[in-house]
Amino acid sequence: MKRNFLVILFIAGAILRSPCEAQNKAVPEQFKYKVDLKKEGTSAEKIAGLDSLLQSLVNQHKVSSVVGFIAKGGNVVYKKAFGWKDMENKVPATPDDYYILFSQTKAITTVAFMTLVEKGLVKIDDPVSTYFPEIPDKVITVVHDDGTYETRPVAKPMTFAHLMSHSSGLNAGLVGKMRRSEMQKRNAAATAGTSPPVGPGQRSGGAGNARYLKDDMIALAKYPLGFDPGSEYSYHVSTNMLAYMVELISGKPLRQYVKETVLEPLGMNDTDWYYEPAALSRFVKAYNAVDGKLEPASNMFSEGTVSKEQTYAEGALGLNGPIDDYAKFCQMLLNRGEFNGHRILKRETIDAMTKVNRLPESNAGGKGFRFGLGFELYNENKKPVPEVSNTAFAWGGLYGTAYIIDPENNLIALYYLNMPKHEDSYPLFLSKAYKLFRK
Length: 439
Hints:
By secondary structure, the protein is an alpha+beta fold. Helix content is 35%, strand content 15%. It is built from 13 helices and 15 strands. The protein has helices spanning 2-25, 44-59, 104-118, 160-164, 173-191, 200-204, 213-220, 238-250, 254-266, 300-303, 323-334, 347-355, 426-435, and strands spanning 65-72, 75-86, 91-92, 99-100, 138-143, 149-153, 287-290, 293-296, 320-321, 338-339, 342-343, 376-377, 393-396, 402-406, 411-416. A 7-stranded antiparallel beta sheet has the order 3-2-1-15-14-13-12, with helices on both faces. A hairpin with a 5-residue loop joins strand 5 and strand 6. Helix 2 packs antiparallel against helix 13 (426-435), helix 3 (104-118) runs parallel beside helix 8 and helix 3 (104-118) crosses helix 9 (254-266). The longest helix is centred in the N-terminal third of the chain and has 24 residues, at 2-25. The radius of gyration is 23 Å and the shape is globular. Residues 1-23 and 193-207 have low confidence and may be disordered. Residues 50-421 form the Beta-lactamase-related domain. This is Serine hydrolase. Residues 185-207 are annotated as: Disordered. GO terms for molecular function: hydrolase activity.
């Protein structure tokens, strides 16, 4: 009798535990590259159709190189590159090449900040002024011809959620115009008509000559806001301020903290802001499409990753790396916080970041544009192609890199170019990526 009772207890305990345990064990901890296409719901013929699309972009001189990555449930059904890493020297592109990620840096910075939230060091709705008293608390109302301006108090203080949703008001509206005008005048006076090099601060919306992100953000904080926090959307510089907050709260440089909490645990070993000089050969060269031809473009951003005495790492841009490195980050998000045997964030944290719109319904992003904490949230009113579900979230970078995480379809898809002005081919790729699994 006693034995039967113990058996019943064991079975009951297993039943109670199994839903949660199965849920936690269901997520893939590594990518599986050798897959049965039929079992994944696709075919070699459909894969060949995607090959043809990407090769046609190269053949038509619309892109110099392109690489795609698609995984369903952690099973990689597509990882291929087309075109040229170096056209002049006829070096073929490969999936392992490095790309300039630009704004794909933002999501990683945001995830790094959310690890501080989970440690109890900060809350997303805390006023930023609690940690950085210099943060602006006034909104600009008028800019006079002589450069002076008038302000009013903010309707509500800036929070970290405002930084992560690009609704902080930093460097926005009249403030952004005023600061750009000031920078142009300084550059003109300093260079006497020559074109100055673009420094990290100029890319970030900062002073243009700072050696550290801290210097830029302190300079930025001396200006008022362009609008009340939470009332509008103004892209970019908010994530740099968030990155500076990561440094203040963690007590570590941004690069160190991001590598320790996100990149290294996920096995993103080739993703970084800076590299040793030998790594320059890993980068795809940049080209522009001009009148149906491809012309060499500046490689200043890849070359800048190996210059000496690097000190400027910013949160809004600057990371680089191969496509499957960032795919690990995407799969972690699809897994709701876990990959490579490491839990980066809690499941509920990922949900809060990717399911809750943080913008007013009418905003500068356009009709239907929604943004969570670090990601655009696709919905019935706005998505890149019809096949994308309403649970998907995504972002991308200035040089043609893009990614999507779609929980409803258990899918991630990444698409990389290295062209500052490029044919908008991403929707074509994305539509075919989804149709791989449609009858």
